[in-house]
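Deliverable D2.4 — example input (structure tokens):
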């Protein structure tokens, strides 16, 4: 019986092995390689072909207030509103009280010092009557004029050095000078408007504690403004020669005119431009606003070699150029514009310029250009 079982068991294993081998032989090999990430990007390009163009020289600029001031105090205390509650955009007049710092404690301290000065004079009067009898009325009148509600009167003149030494030794002159210093400090509890203007920013509201030097608000002078204009080095000389310029809005409407006030001595390394500051006066009843962008026109044209690219291809005066299968940044100079396009110089004929911005991507190993007309 055992022999038959062994034979059957061997036959079973042989049949099973045969079937398993047959299944393996019919199985197709599986591709174990995963899908590789995209390593090639297709980008739109154009072949550079510069052309001679006569363009009206233009630039752009931003209107800025001629004067801006930070409101702050040299003293500490509770901040109080001035003659009117100020908010961003509020207008004010020259010499108007904009803010105050609570001066009650300083006021009482000042009056205490005045009382001390009066006591010093009273204590010195008997000696004055003995040694300087002719000067007694002078010091009596000075003491009577000391009033908590008003500034100290003028200090009496000394008749001789002996009187000066006596008054100084009694501490009267030193106390007088200390009080005058404290009176001068009292003026610092009020901020008077240095010009007609408007509020640009608010940093603290009445009720807050004003600390010395901390910004309370920022104010700008109205009526006088200037335009900050970046001008390329190649055009700077021409702008300086002409001096005057017109300013237009985004729709081409003339909003003002002006002339060069000053020129910066620092060159922007990225754009190779210089900031030129123009005065600006509104025209045709136009309203000018700080922060407004305007186009700057001068009555002159210039012929230059340039290439037209979409506006989206230029960022911070840089474009991308396709070299082989890689892209590189290239600095260019914008010398003109039209709707959706810019005229740029600084490219060589035959180069492949990318017509859009290329974002950094580590998975992309190469770029293929697709030419567009």
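Example output (designed residues):
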């Amino acid at each position: 019986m055992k022999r038959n079982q062994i034979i059957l068991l061997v036959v079973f294993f042989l049949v099973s092995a045969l079937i398993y081998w047959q299944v393996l032989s019919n199985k197709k090999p599986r591709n174990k390689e995963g899908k590789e990430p995209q390593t090639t990007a297709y980008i739109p390009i154009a072949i550079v072909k510069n052309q001679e163009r006569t363009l009206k020289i233009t630039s752009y600029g931003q209107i800025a207030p001629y004067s801006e001031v930070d409101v702050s105090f040299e003293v500490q205390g509770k901040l109080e509103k001035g003659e009117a509650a100020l908010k961003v955009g509020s207008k004010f007049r020259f010499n108007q009280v904009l803010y105050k710092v609570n001066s009650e404690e300083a006021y009482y301290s000042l009056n205490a010092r005045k009382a001390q000065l009066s006591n010093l004079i009273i204590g010195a009067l008997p000696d004055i009557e003995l040694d300087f009898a002719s000067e007694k009325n002078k010091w009596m009148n000075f003491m009577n004029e000391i009033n908590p509600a008003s500034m100290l009167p003028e200090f009496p003149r000394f008749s001789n050095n002996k009187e000066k030494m006596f008054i100084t030794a009694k501490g009267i002159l030193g106390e007088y000078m200390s009080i005058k210093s404290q009176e001068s400090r009292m003026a610092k509890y009020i901020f008077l408007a240095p010009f007609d203007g408007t509020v640009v920013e608010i940093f603290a509201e009445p009720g807050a504690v004003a600390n010395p030097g901390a910004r309370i608000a920022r104010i700008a002078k109205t009526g006088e403004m200037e335009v900050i204009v970046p001008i390329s080095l190649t055009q700077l000389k021409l702008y300086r020669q002409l001096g005057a310029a017109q300013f237009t809005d985004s729709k081409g409407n003339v909003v003002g005119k002006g002339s060069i006030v000053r020129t910066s001595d620092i060159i922007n390394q990225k754009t190779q431009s210089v900031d030129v500051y123009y005065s600006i006066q509104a025209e045709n009843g136009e309203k000018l606003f700080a922060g407004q962008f305007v186009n700057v026109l001068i009555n002159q044209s210039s012929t230059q070699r340039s290439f037209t690219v979409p506006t989206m291809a230029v960022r911070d005066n840089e474009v991308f150029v396709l070299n082989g299968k890689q892209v590189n940044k290239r600095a260019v100079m914008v010398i003109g514009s039209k709707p959706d396009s810019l005229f740029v110089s600084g490219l060589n004929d035959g180069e492949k310029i990318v017509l859009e911005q290329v974002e950094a991507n580590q998975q992309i190993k190469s770029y293929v250009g697709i030419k567009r007309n």
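Residues 127 and 133 are 9 Å apart (CA to CA).
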